[in-house]
């Protein structure tokens, strides 16, 4: 069955817990959230991720700004609306904005995975269009769903040609709309993270 709804609920719980623990607002209400029946299996993972993110944030002196920021923009010339929810937004000591995107994976994440996921160019673009502010850096925190969870970290500065890269993604969306199919970026690429999945027959066939 399609577990996207459950996955999104889990993501929201994780982001909120990270927000509370990073801002030192962890209270009984937040802890009770992790005791709900549907989160029993994920409780350890949420705690592990939140603690690891807090450690990294404190080491670098980052300031929490917000979590679960929904953004949307209509590209009228291409008849496409991009909308996404950004996980976590921080600022460094110089006031530069940094996005931290949290993910879980069954096994190790590689640089190939990080390069394939499109949030790193779409989030900063939507943020700039909504607030007219620049995202300096995009980071992934990926925790494995294993007995001994491992944290993989990837980051890169937001490229100057980000608008051109997003345009290419939009063109791919239009092609996918015409052909109703798109090949994965590479073998075993997770369709869940693909911005074209809703227009892809291959994706619809497996969910």
Quick description:
With 207 residues, this protein is α+β, with helices and mostly antiparallel strands.
Molecular structure report:
The chain is α+β, with helices and mostly antiparallel strands and 207 residues long. It has helices spanning 4-22, 28-33, 43-60, 111-116, 119-131, 162-179, 201-206, and strands at 63-75, 80-91, 97-105, 135-144, 151-157. A five-stranded mixed β-sheet has the order 1-2-3-4-5, with helices on both faces. The longest helix is centred in the first third of the chain and has 19 residues, at 4-22. The termini are close together.
Task: Give me the secondary-structure topology.
Elements: H1 4-22, H2 28-33, H3 43-60, E1 63-75, E2 80-91, E3 97-105, H4 111-116, H5 119-131, E4 135-144, E5 151-157, H6 162-179, H7 201-206
Parallel strand pairs: 3-4
Antiparallel strand pairs: 1-2, 2-3, 4-5
Helix pairs in contact: 1-3, 5-6
Shape: globular
- SSE order in H/E notation? HHHEEEHHEEHH
State which percent range the strand residues make up: 15-25%
For the record, give the distance between the C-alpha atoms at the N and C termini, rounded to a whole number: 6 Å
Q: Sheet with the most strands?
A: 5 strands, mixed
What is the count of β-strands?
5
Report the structural category. Answer: alpha+beta
Radius of gyration: 17 Å
**Low-confidence segments, ≥5 residues, pLDDT <50?**
1-5, 184-189, 203-207
Q: Given the structure, what is the number of helices?
A: 7
Helix content: 40-55%
The average pLDDT value, as a whole number, equals 76
Biggest β-sheet: strands ordered side by side in the sheet: 1-2-3-4-5
